[in-house]
Amino acid sequence: MTSSDNDLWKKSATDVVSLLKNNEISPEDALNSNLKRIEETHNSINAVITVCEDRARKQIKNLNTINKDHPGYLHGLPVVIKDLTNVKDVRTTYGSQIYENNIPESSDFLVERIEQMGGIIIGKTNTPEFGAGSQTFNKVFGATPNPWNLDYTAGGSSGGTASALASGAAWLGTGSDLEGL
Predict the structure, then answer these.
(1) Is domain 11-167 given the CATH code 3.90.1300.10 in the classification?
(2) Whole-model pTM?
(3) Going along the chain, which residue ranges are E strands?
(4) Which of 38, 41, 88, 151 stands the most exposed, by the fewest C-beta atoms within 10 Å?
């Protein structure tokens, strides 16, 4: 990674995927940039509440063995997953103390698809308990504020993902909206 890539976190997901596809950066470069930015922002915004670095590094090693000719549309891009969605072997709490130590044995279909497309799951984002609420806070991880003004809410229930994206701690993340059901 070149010295100008210290600002890699400021680029769009589309730009980063292009850099990955053109071999201008490696998936490790993208992952390291994400991890650094998560560390820089965590104490102030509390958006990425569980980091799965070891799992992500294993995924990167497997990228080339899955399909060498076409590693997927996401091509090694790190992705954060809302803490309502199961990721195999990664703590998933649903924002509830009831599930504080829950480690799923399988991943949700959405996570499987992201990984099939070459996405690298890097961590879980904060959510209100069971995703119910218009502000992102819970008794397991606390609150996630708006990164642009820490006195404001990030909203809910995908406020952790929203704050991660807005702060540059992630390029792509999942959310959900069940209000229409």
Answers:
(1) yes
(2) 0.92
(3) 48-51, 78-82, 120-125, 137-138, 142-143, 145-146, 149-153
(4) 151
71: closest CA among 21, 110, 111? 21
* H-run or E-run covering 54: helix 53-66
* Domain coordinates in residue numbering, the chain: 11-167
Task: Report d(CA 72, CA 136) in Å as an integer.
Answer: 32
The Cα 42–Cα 91 span in angstroms is 18
Closest-CA residue to 120 (of 49, 28, 15, 37): 28
Section 84-96 average pLDDT: 97
Q: Is the pLDDT assigned to residue 181 strictly greater than 50?
A: no
Query: Whole-angstrom Cα distance, residue 74 to residue 104?
Result: 24
